[in-house]
Amino acid sequence: MNNGVISNSVIRRLPRYYRFLGELKLSGVSRISSRELSEKMGLTASQIRQDLNCFGGFGQQGYGYNVEMLQSEIGHILGLDKSQSMILIGVGNLGRAVAQHINFESKGFQLIGLFDCKESLVGQMVRNLPIRNINTLDEFCRENMPKTAVLCIPKESAKQISEQLYKLGVRGFWNFSHYDLSLDFKDIIVENMHFGDSLMALSFKLNNAKNLEL
User: Fold this and answer.
1) pLDDT value at position 210?
2) What is the pTM of this model?
3) Which helix (H) or strand (E) holds 114?
4) Residue 108 CB contacts under 8 Å (≥ 6 apart), including other chains
5) pLDDT per residue over 123-173, tens digit each?
6) Share above pLDDT 70 across residues of the chain, in percent, rounded to a whole number
7) Integer Cα distance of 139 and 168 in angstroms
8) Residues ≥6 apart with Cβ < 8 Å to 200
9) In the chain, N or C: fewer CB atoms in 10 Å?
10) Residue 160 CB coordination number (10 Å)
């Protein structure tokens, strides 16, 4: 892998490459050129080559890319062949949906614990895991040492919970809380999820379609 800094835009495209290559593999395609891949993904061939060259490049002149091998290599780059333990805080409607419908194992994570403050939820089973009382979070984390957490909690609760998790060694956050964790912690990795932002972006694109790059 290139030892230089990888741009966020390249990182954002890696999962798309992985997903498209998986679809190609399932359809029986064994090799593909950067031009053919660019046509399917709506990118330029040079952009694809530049992105992959950040990690060494995987094509052969006159042959293109081996689809299965390239998907495997990108999966390795993404860390999908590893398994990082993860806990989820807040098992309301959103948290329950995330726990039930996200295939964590195929994305490089293992969901090992669910927590909520509502007594009415404690003890319920979701994804073959019991919902635990948030009061047991410290003990659970000291025993199981998760490094990542999903936050499906209100913004006003996020500061306290994130501070607690940080003290317990959690350094990765999949954050649905709308609280900017980076304000408090400079050495964490956080992926912020804002459904409202995505919807507003869709609104902009619908209202400015003539000015968009295709």
Assistant:
1) 72
2) 0.89
3) strand 109-116
4) 78, 79, 80, 81, 82, 83, 84
5) 999 999 999 999 999 999 999 999 999 999 999 999 999 999 999 999 999
6) 95
7) 10
8) none
9) C
10) 10
d(CA 70, CA 72): 5
- Rounded-to-integer distance, Cα 135 and Cα 140, Å: 10
φ and ψ at 36, to 5 degrees? -65, -40
Give 111-116's long-range contacts (Cβ < 8 A, gap of 24+).
111/86, 111/87, 112/85, 112/86, 112/87, 112/144, 112/146, 113/87, 113/88, 113/140, 113/144, 113/146, 114/87, 114/88, 115/87, 115/88, 115/89, 115/90, 115/91, 115/140, 116/89, 116/90, 116/91, 116/92
Q: What is the pLDDT of residues 187-208, one digit of tens each?
A: 999 999 998 999 998 898 888 8
Query: 116 pairs with which residues across the strands?
Result: 133
CA distance 78 to 92: 29
Residue 7 main-chain phi, psi, to 5 deg? -70, 155
| Residue carrying structure tokens 């996200």 | 102
**3-class state of residue 191 by DSSP:** strand
Type of residue found at 207? N
